[in-house]
Amino acid sequence: MNARFILLGTLFLCLSISILHADDRVKSATTEDDPLSTEAQAAVDELKKTLPTDSEPMAMLEDILKGSRLSSNDGWFSLAKSQTRFGWDYVVKKFDENHDDSVEPKEFSGSEADFARLDRDGDELITIADFDWSEHSLTSSAGLNMFFMADRDANGKVTEQEFVSLFKMLGASEDGYLSIDELREQFPATEAPARLDQKRPDRPSRSTLILGLKNQEIGSLQSGPQLEDVAPDFTLTTLQGDSVTLSQAVGDKPIVLIFGNFTCGPFRSQAGNIEKLYERYKDRAKFFLVYVREAHPKESWWMMSNQQAGIEIAQPKDFSGRREVAATCQRHLDLKIPFLIDSIDDTVGAQYSGMPNRLYLIDQQGRVVFKNGRGPFGFHPRQLEQALVLLNNP
Predict the structure, then answer these.
(1) What is the pTM of this model?
(2) What is the third-level CATH fold of 223-391?
Protein backbone atom coordinates (compact mmCIF):
# COMPACT_ATOMS: atom_id res chain seq x y z
CA MET A 1 0.00 0.00 0.00
CA ASN A 2 2.87 2.41 0.74
CA ALA A 3 4.24 1.80 -2.74
CA ARG A 4 0.84 2.68 -4.16
CA PHE A 5 0.80 6.01 -2.33
CA ILE A 6 4.33 6.74 -3.51
CA LEU A 7 3.24 6.05 -7.08
CA LEU A 8 0.27 8.38 -6.78
CA GLY A 9 2.50 11.04 -5.31
CA THR A 10 4.82 10.65 -8.26
CA LEU A 11 1.93 11.31 -10.63
CA PHE A 12 1.00 14.59 -9.01
CA LEU A 13 4.60 15.72 -8.77
CA CYS A 14 5.18 14.99 -12.45
CA LEU A 15 2.08 16.91 -13.44
CA SER A 16 2.58 19.87 -11.14
CA ILE A 17 6.33 20.45 -11.03
CA SER A 18 7.77 19.16 -14.30
CA ILE A 19 6.21 22.16 -16.02
CA LEU A 20 5.92 25.89 -15.39
CA HIS A 21 2.72 25.52 -13.41
CA ALA A 22 -0.20 25.22 -15.79
CA ASP A 23 -2.94 25.32 -13.12
CA ASP A 24 -4.11 28.91 -12.61
CA ARG A 25 -6.35 28.12 -9.64
CA VAL A 26 -3.55 28.63 -7.13
CA LYS A 27 -2.47 32.21 -6.55
CA SER A 28 1.21 32.99 -6.10
CA ALA A 29 2.53 34.35 -2.86
CA THR A 30 2.59 38.15 -2.82
CA THR A 31 5.78 39.80 -3.98
CA GLU A 32 6.29 41.05 -0.41
CA ASP A 33 6.47 37.42 0.73
CA ASP A 34 9.01 36.66 -2.00
CA PRO A 35 11.63 39.43 -2.03
CA LEU A 36 14.36 39.45 -4.65
CA SER A 37 17.90 38.53 -3.76
CA THR A 38 20.67 41.04 -4.44
CA GLU A 39 21.88 38.91 -7.36
CA ALA A 40 18.37 38.67 -8.81
CA GLN A 41 17.78 42.42 -8.52
CA ALA A 42 21.03 43.06 -10.38
CA ALA A 43 19.86 40.66 -13.08
CA VAL A 44 16.55 42.53 -13.33
CA ASP A 45 18.35 45.84 -13.75
CA GLU A 46 20.58 44.35 -16.46
CA LEU A 47 17.72 42.70 -18.34
CA LYS A 48 15.61 45.86 -18.32
CA LYS A 49 18.48 47.73 -19.95
CA THR A 50 19.11 45.18 -22.67
CA LEU A 51 15.74 43.61 -23.55
CA PRO A 52 13.44 45.30 -26.10
CA THR A 53 10.29 46.53 -24.40
CA ASP A 54 7.93 44.54 -26.64
CA SER A 55 9.97 41.33 -26.71
CA GLU A 56 9.08 37.83 -25.53
CA PRO A 57 11.70 37.78 -22.75
CA MET A 58 10.56 41.20 -21.47
CA ALA A 59 7.02 39.84 -21.20
CA MET A 60 8.42 36.90 -19.24
CA LEU A 61 10.42 39.14 -16.92
CA GLU A 62 7.44 41.36 -16.20
CA ASP A 63 5.20 38.43 -15.31
CA ILE A 64 7.87 36.87 -13.08
CA LEU A 65 8.20 40.16 -11.21
CA LYS A 66 4.44 40.24 -10.72
CA GLY A 67 4.58 36.80 -9.09
CA SER A 68 2.79 35.10 -11.99
CA ARG A 69 2.32 31.32 -11.96
CA LEU A 70 3.63 31.34 -15.57
CA SER A 71 0.83 29.30 -17.07
CA SER A 72 0.49 28.61 -20.79
CA ASN A 73 -1.07 32.07 -21.22
CA ASP A 74 1.50 34.07 -19.25
CA GLY A 75 4.83 35.65 -20.10
CA TRP A 76 6.32 34.65 -23.44
CA PHE A 77 3.96 31.68 -23.71
CA SER A 78 1.17 34.09 -24.65
CA LEU A 79 3.27 35.53 -27.50
CA ALA A 80 5.34 32.66 -28.91
CA LYS A 81 2.74 30.57 -30.72
CA SER A 82 3.39 27.91 -33.36
CA GLN A 83 3.98 28.97 -36.95
CA THR A 84 3.43 26.71 -39.95
CA ARG A 85 3.20 26.86 -43.72
CA PHE A 86 0.96 23.78 -43.57
CA GLY A 87 -2.07 24.78 -41.53
CA TRP A 88 -5.73 24.03 -42.15
CA ASP A 89 -6.07 26.78 -44.80
CA TYR A 90 -3.31 25.12 -46.82
CA VAL A 91 -4.97 21.69 -46.55
CA VAL A 92 -8.40 22.94 -47.66
CA LYS A 93 -7.01 24.84 -50.63
CA LYS A 94 -4.86 21.92 -51.81
CA PHE A 95 -7.03 18.85 -51.21
CA ASP A 96 -10.71 19.76 -50.64
CA GLU A 97 -11.95 19.18 -54.18
CA ASN A 98 -15.69 19.16 -53.35
CA HIS A 99 -15.44 22.21 -51.06
CA ASP A 100 -17.19 20.63 -48.07
CA ASP A 101 -14.57 21.75 -45.53
CA SER A 102 -13.19 18.25 -45.12
CA VAL A 103 -10.78 15.98 -46.95
CA GLU A 104 -11.76 12.39 -47.72
CA PRO A 105 -9.18 9.67 -48.41
CA LYS A 106 -9.96 9.79 -52.14
CA GLU A 107 -9.16 13.51 -52.23
CA PHE A 108 -5.78 13.09 -50.58
CA SER A 109 -2.86 12.49 -52.93
CA GLY A 110 -0.62 10.79 -50.38
CA SER A 111 -0.55 7.32 -48.87
CA GLU A 112 -3.06 5.79 -46.47
CA ALA A 113 -0.44 5.94 -43.73
CA ASP A 114 0.10 9.65 -44.29
CA PHE A 115 -3.64 10.28 -44.31
CA ALA A 116 -3.95 8.45 -40.99
CA ARG A 117 -1.27 10.62 -39.40
CA LEU A 118 -3.11 13.77 -40.47
CA ASP A 119 -6.46 12.37 -39.28
CA ARG A 120 -5.77 12.76 -35.55
CA ASP A 121 -9.27 11.83 -34.34
CA GLY A 122 -9.49 8.76 -36.59
CA ASP A 123 -12.87 9.63 -38.15
CA GLU A 124 -11.57 8.96 -41.69
CA LEU A 125 -11.86 12.63 -42.58
CA ILE A 126 -9.28 15.38 -42.31
CA THR A 127 -11.05 18.38 -40.79
CA ILE A 128 -10.18 21.60 -39.02
CA ALA A 129 -10.40 19.75 -35.71
CA ASP A 130 -7.35 17.69 -36.67
CA PHE A 131 -5.37 20.94 -36.93
CA ASP A 132 -6.54 22.44 -33.64
CA TRP A 133 -3.52 22.71 -31.33
CA SER A 134 -5.03 25.20 -28.89
CA GLU A 135 -4.52 22.84 -25.95
CA HIS A 136 -0.97 22.88 -24.65
CA SER A 137 1.10 19.72 -24.72
CA LEU A 138 0.74 19.07 -20.98
CA THR A 139 -3.02 19.54 -20.69
CA SER A 140 -4.17 16.94 -18.20
CA SER A 141 -6.08 13.88 -19.36
CA ALA A 142 -6.66 10.34 -18.14
CA GLY A 143 -4.11 9.06 -20.63
CA LEU A 144 -1.46 11.58 -19.56
CA ASN A 145 -2.03 10.75 -15.91
CA MET A 146 -1.67 7.03 -16.61
CA PHE A 147 1.52 7.65 -18.59
CA PHE A 148 3.23 9.57 -15.78
CA MET A 149 2.23 6.95 -13.22
CA ALA A 150 3.60 4.13 -15.35
CA ASP A 151 6.80 5.78 -16.59
CA ARG A 152 8.77 5.18 -13.39
CA ASP A 153 12.23 5.71 -14.91
CA ALA A 154 11.13 8.98 -16.58
CA ASN A 155 12.44 8.08 -20.03
CA GLY A 156 9.29 8.89 -21.99
CA LYS A 157 8.54 5.26 -22.84
CA VAL A 158 6.19 2.93 -20.98
CA THR A 159 7.33 -0.66 -21.30
CA GLU A 160 5.27 -3.80 -20.80
CA GLN A 161 7.02 -4.40 -17.49
CA GLU A 162 6.19 -0.88 -16.28
CA PHE A 163 2.56 -1.34 -17.30
CA VAL A 164 2.34 -4.64 -15.42
CA SER A 165 3.93 -2.99 -12.39
CA LEU A 166 1.35 -0.20 -12.56
CA PHE A 167 -1.44 -2.78 -12.72
CA LYS A 168 -0.17 -4.35 -9.52
CA MET A 169 0.49 -1.04 -7.80
CA LEU A 170 -3.09 0.05 -8.35
CA GLY A 171 -4.32 -2.82 -6.20
CA ALA A 172 -5.06 -5.45 -8.84
CA SER A 173 -2.75 -7.91 -7.12
CA GLU A 174 -5.33 -8.30 -4.34
CA ASP A 175 -8.12 -9.68 -6.52
CA GLY A 176 -6.65 -9.92 -10.03
CA TYR A 177 -8.59 -7.14 -11.73
CA LEU A 178 -9.43 -3.44 -11.61
CA SER A 179 -12.96 -2.06 -11.68
CA ILE A 180 -14.10 0.96 -13.67
CA ASP A 181 -14.49 3.05 -10.51
CA GLU A 182 -10.97 2.20 -9.38
CA LEU A 183 -9.54 3.40 -12.69
CA ARG A 184 -11.69 6.53 -12.68
CA GLU A 185 -10.38 7.40 -9.23
CA GLN A 186 -6.75 6.84 -10.16
CA PHE A 187 -6.82 8.54 -13.58
CA PRO A 188 -8.87 11.72 -13.28
CA ALA A 189 -9.13 13.98 -16.31
CA THR A 190 -8.50 17.08 -14.19
CA GLU A 191 -5.39 18.95 -13.22
CA ALA A 192 -3.40 17.84 -10.19
CA PRO A 193 -4.79 19.08 -6.86
CA ALA A 194 -4.18 22.80 -6.54
CA ARG A 195 -3.03 22.68 -2.94
CA LEU A 196 -0.05 20.47 -3.68
CA ASP A 197 2.38 23.17 -4.68
CA GLN A 198 1.69 25.73 -1.95
CA LYS A 199 4.65 24.73 0.27
CA ARG A 200 6.52 22.40 -2.03
CA PRO A 201 10.29 22.56 -1.42
CA ASP A 202 11.17 22.91 -5.09
CA ARG A 203 8.69 25.64 -5.86
CA PRO A 204 10.83 28.34 -7.53
CA SER A 205 11.12 31.79 -6.00
CA ARG A 206 11.00 34.90 -8.13
CA SER A 207 14.77 35.17 -7.74
CA THR A 208 15.27 31.62 -9.03
CA LEU A 209 13.11 32.30 -12.06
CA ILE A 210 14.80 35.62 -12.83
CA LEU A 211 18.26 34.06 -12.68
CA GLY A 212 16.97 31.15 -14.78
CA LEU A 213 15.75 33.69 -17.32
CA LYS A 214 19.06 35.59 -17.35
CA ASN A 215 21.02 32.34 -17.75
CA GLN A 216 18.61 31.14 -20.47
CA GLU A 217 17.78 27.98 -18.50
CA ILE A 218 14.02 28.50 -18.68
CA GLY A 219 14.26 29.74 -22.28
CA SER A 220 16.25 31.73 -24.78
CA LEU A 221 16.43 35.52 -24.68
CA GLN A 222 15.94 35.45 -28.45
CA SER A 223 12.76 34.56 -30.34
CA GLY A 224 14.37 32.43 -33.03
CA PRO A 225 13.86 32.50 -36.81
CA GLN A 226 10.35 33.13 -38.04
CA LEU A 227 8.23 31.25 -40.59
CA GLU A 228 9.75 31.39 -44.09
CA ASP A 229 13.06 32.80 -42.80
CA VAL A 230 16.22 31.15 -44.05
CA ALA A 231 17.31 28.90 -41.19
CA PRO A 232 20.43 30.35 -39.53
CA ASP A 233 23.50 28.33 -40.41
CA PHE A 234 25.58 26.54 -37.79
CA THR A 235 28.24 23.91 -37.38
CA LEU A 236 27.97 21.57 -34.40
CA THR A 237 29.62 18.36 -33.27
CA THR A 238 27.94 14.97 -32.89
CA LEU A 239 28.41 12.69 -29.90
CA GLN A 240 30.90 10.76 -32.03
CA GLY A 241 32.96 13.91 -32.72
CA ASP A 242 31.91 14.54 -36.33
CA SER A 243 31.02 18.03 -37.54
CA VAL A 244 27.63 18.82 -39.09
CA THR A 245 26.98 22.10 -40.92
CA LEU A 246 23.32 22.88 -41.47
CA SER A 247 23.75 24.61 -44.85
CA GLN A 248 25.58 21.54 -46.17
CA ALA A 249 22.77 19.26 -44.97
CA VAL A 250 20.08 21.31 -46.75
CA GLY A 251 19.08 19.92 -50.12
CA ASP A 252 17.47 16.65 -51.08
CA LYS A 253 15.38 16.13 -47.92
CA PRO A 254 13.66 18.29 -45.31
CA ILE A 255 15.49 18.77 -42.01
CA VAL A 256 13.93 18.28 -38.59
CA LEU A 257 15.63 20.05 -35.66
CA ILE A 258 14.61 18.96 -32.16
CA PHE A 259 16.00 20.97 -29.25
CA GLY A 260 16.05 19.53 -25.75
CA ASN A 261 17.96 18.68 -22.57
CA PHE A 262 18.00 15.94 -19.95
CA THR A 263 16.72 17.84 -16.91
CA CYS A 264 13.58 19.10 -18.68
CA GLY A 265 10.86 16.67 -17.57
CA PRO A 266 8.41 17.57 -20.35
CA PHE A 267 11.14 16.94 -22.94
CA ARG A 268 11.92 13.52 -21.45
CA SER A 269 8.22 12.66 -21.45
CA GLN A 270 8.18 13.18 -25.24
CA ALA A 271 11.13 10.84 -25.90
CA GLY A 272 8.87 8.04 -27.11
CA ASN A 273 7.10 10.38 -29.53
CA ILE A 274 10.43 11.72 -30.76
CA GLU A 275 11.83 8.25 -31.36
CA LYS A 276 8.71 7.09 -33.21
CA LEU A 277 8.75 10.24 -35.33
CA TYR A 278 12.38 9.53 -36.24
CA GLU A 279 11.78 5.86 -37.05
CA ARG A 280 8.69 6.68 -39.12
CA TYR A 281 10.29 9.40 -41.29
CA LYS A 282 14.07 8.95 -41.15
CA ASP A 283 14.07 7.94 -44.83
CA ARG A 284 12.12 11.06 -45.80
CA ALA A 285 13.89 13.70 -43.70
CA LYS A 286 17.18 14.38 -41.94
CA PHE A 287 16.82 14.46 -38.16
CA PHE A 288 19.05 16.15 -35.61
CA LEU A 289 18.53 16.53 -31.88
CA VAL A 290 20.36 19.68 -30.74
CA TYR A 291 21.38 19.25 -27.11
CA VAL A 292 21.15 22.57 -25.22
CA ARG A 293 21.63 24.11 -21.77
CA GLU A 294 20.06 22.23 -18.84
CA ALA A 295 16.71 23.63 -17.72
CA HIS A 296 16.81 22.35 -14.14
CA PRO A 297 20.37 21.86 -12.88
CA LYS A 298 20.59 20.82 -9.26
CA GLU A 299 22.22 24.10 -8.17
CA SER A 300 19.48 26.28 -9.69
CA TRP A 301 15.78 25.47 -10.14
CA TRP A 302 16.06 21.87 -9.05
CA MET A 303 13.07 19.57 -9.52
CA MET A 304 11.82 16.93 -7.13
CA SER A 305 10.64 14.86 -10.09
CA ASN A 306 14.23 14.78 -11.39
CA GLN A 307 15.51 13.82 -7.96
CA GLN A 308 13.03 10.96 -7.71
CA ALA A 309 14.18 9.69 -11.11
CA GLY A 310 17.83 9.87 -10.06
CA ILE A 311 18.53 12.76 -12.43
CA GLU A 312 20.56 15.29 -10.44
CA ILE A 313 22.91 17.12 -12.78
CA ALA A 314 24.89 20.33 -12.38
CA GLN A 315 25.00 22.79 -15.25
CA PRO A 316 28.04 21.78 -17.33
CA LYS A 317 30.84 24.33 -17.28
CA ASP A 318 32.56 23.28 -20.49
CA PHE A 319 31.82 21.50 -23.76
CA SER A 320 33.24 18.20 -22.53
CA GLY A 321 30.83 18.25 -19.59
CA ARG A 322 27.85 19.04 -21.81
CA ARG A 323 28.76 16.24 -24.21
CA GLU A 324 28.98 13.82 -21.28
CA VAL A 325 25.51 14.78 -20.04
CA ALA A 326 24.14 14.57 -23.58
CA ALA A 327 25.52 11.03 -23.89
CA THR A 328 23.86 10.12 -20.59
CA CYS A 329 20.59 11.58 -21.87
CA GLN A 330 20.78 9.55 -25.09
CA ARG A 331 21.42 6.33 -23.16
CA HIS A 332 18.70 6.94 -20.57
CA LEU A 333 16.06 7.86 -23.15
CA ASP A 334 17.31 5.17 -25.56
CA LEU A 335 17.22 7.54 -28.53
CA LYS A 336 18.72 6.60 -31.89
CA ILE A 337 18.22 10.03 -33.44
CA PRO A 338 21.57 11.76 -34.16
CA PHE A 339 22.64 14.20 -31.40
CA LEU A 340 24.37 17.53 -32.03
CA ILE A 341 25.91 19.26 -29.01
CA ASP A 342 25.49 23.01 -28.72
CA SER A 343 28.57 25.02 -27.74
CA ILE A 344 28.93 25.89 -24.07
CA ASP A 345 28.05 29.53 -24.84
CA ASP A 346 24.67 28.32 -26.14
CA THR A 347 25.09 29.91 -29.58
CA VAL A 348 22.62 27.74 -31.50
CA GLY A 349 20.17 27.18 -28.66
CA ALA A 350 19.91 30.94 -28.16
CA GLN A 351 19.76 31.73 -31.87
CA TYR A 352 16.94 29.24 -32.46
CA SER A 353 15.22 29.95 -29.13
CA GLY A 354 15.70 26.25 -28.44
CA MET A 355 15.73 26.23 -24.64
CA PRO A 356 14.24 24.26 -22.92
CA ASN A 357 12.78 22.45 -25.95
CA ARG A 358 11.64 23.34 -29.45
CA LEU A 359 10.84 21.87 -32.87
CA TYR A 360 11.67 23.16 -36.35
CA LEU A 361 11.05 21.85 -39.86
CA ILE A 362 13.28 23.23 -42.63
CA ASP A 363 12.44 22.67 -46.30
CA GLN A 364 14.76 21.69 -49.14
CA GLN A 365 15.52 25.37 -49.83
CA GLY A 366 16.65 25.95 -46.25
CA ARG A 367 13.59 27.90 -45.08
CA VAL A 368 11.67 27.44 -41.84
CA VAL A 369 8.25 25.95 -42.66
CA PHE A 370 7.26 24.93 -39.13
CA LYS A 371 8.18 26.22 -35.69
CA ASN A 372 6.35 25.23 -32.54
CA GLY A 373 5.48 27.53 -29.67
CA ARG A 374 7.76 27.98 -26.66
CA GLY A 375 8.44 24.82 -24.72
CA PRO A 376 7.26 23.13 -22.67
CA PHE A 377 3.65 24.06 -23.45
CA GLY A 378 4.03 24.36 -27.22
CA PHE A 379 6.08 21.19 -27.71
CA HIS A 380 3.87 19.05 -29.99
CA PRO A 381 5.81 16.46 -32.04
CA ARG A 382 2.56 15.39 -33.71
CA GLN A 383 2.02 18.95 -34.97
CA LEU A 384 5.46 18.91 -36.56
CA GLU A 385 4.58 15.53 -38.06
CA GLN A 386 1.58 17.05 -39.84
CA ALA A 387 3.83 19.65 -41.44
CA LEU A 388 6.38 17.01 -42.41
CA VAL A 389 3.73 14.80 -44.04
CA LEU A 390 2.34 17.71 -46.04
CA LEU A 391 5.79 18.91 -47.08
CA ASN A 392 6.42 15.41 -48.40
CA ASN A 393 3.15 15.44 -50.37
CA PRO A 394 3.56 18.46 -52.68
Answers:
(1) 0.89
(2) Glutaredoxin (3.40.30)
